[in-house]
Amino acid sequence: MIGVVGAGAFGTALAVTLARAGRQVRLWGRDAGTMAAARGTRTLPRLPGVILPAGIHPTADPADLRECDTLLLAIPMQRLGATLPTLGLTPRHAVAACKGVDLTTLQGPTAILRAALPGAVPAILSGPSFATDIARGLPTALSLGCIDEAAGAALQTLLSTPTLRLYRTTDVAGVELGGALKNVVAIACGAAIGAGLGDSARAALMTRGMAEMMRLATAMGARRETLMGLSGLGDLALTCASPQSRNFALGHAIGHGDAPPDATTEGTATATAALRLAETHGVDMPVTQATAALVAGRVTVKDAMKALLDRDLTEE
Predict the structure, then answer these.
(1) Residue 11, marked binder
(2) Are residues 140 and 207 located together in one domain of the fold?
(3) Which residues take part in binding sn-glycerol 3-phosphate (predicted)?
(4) Closest to 159 (Cα-Cα) out of 52, 39, 68
(5) What is the mean pLDDT of the segment spanning 282-306?
(6) Are 210 and 184 contacting, i.e. CB atoms less than 8 angstroms apart?
């Protein structure tokens, strides 16, 4: 039995693809009324038009998750640490399906899982994916990071489906940081396109942003090849190029002078957290610095781009 904590778009999409592959899934959401309605309508508002397969049991009662050996935690990163202790669960495996760095502790998802669920083997699922693609059964590949090789192999088998292919690695830091830091670069790229700065500017931000991701991640023990994989380069390419990305959409709204969309954008908090980590590890991150100032309203897109272009010339 697999439990999915979080009935937003991504959690629901994961539940749908797993249930279509024959898994029994308990899907937990906070709103009792919404989850009760879902048992009748077989739909959820965050993923309209997608019918929940019979193998999914929607619930708002954490007790329904106690039979689940494996939990997928698809809740926003900044709420992960506060939510888990309230559920009273003791799974065998706990897989984070969220991206970011906790602003209070500067930790990634697996450290939060380890503290809140000490009896569980923690893992992280990340990579280039949109919930709508997964729910529609479109081919998607993700990285599964787990330090325990045997547990990682078991989870890879359990969570892979005919349309969702998982690649496993023991480089948890690389999977976490790739998934978190690319959101910051996506905001910057969205702002550039929204402000009419062009695709060349976006390509420059993606490339230099990737260099920053590499510098910080390797300084924190990640492997370069992980950042060049699905959870780094792959996710960066997707989120910096598509308006479906919530982080790109936020940046686009800022660059265009529109009201920001009403959606969780993990890159906002991650920009601030990444700068704190960069200071600790002595890493230069000018794109991240400019993005953090931009989302905080301290600079305009024009000023942020000028600051980047005016930096001293250097080798690549």
Answers:
(1) yes
(2) no
(3) 99, 127, 129, 182, 235, 245-247
(4) 68
(5) 95
(6) no
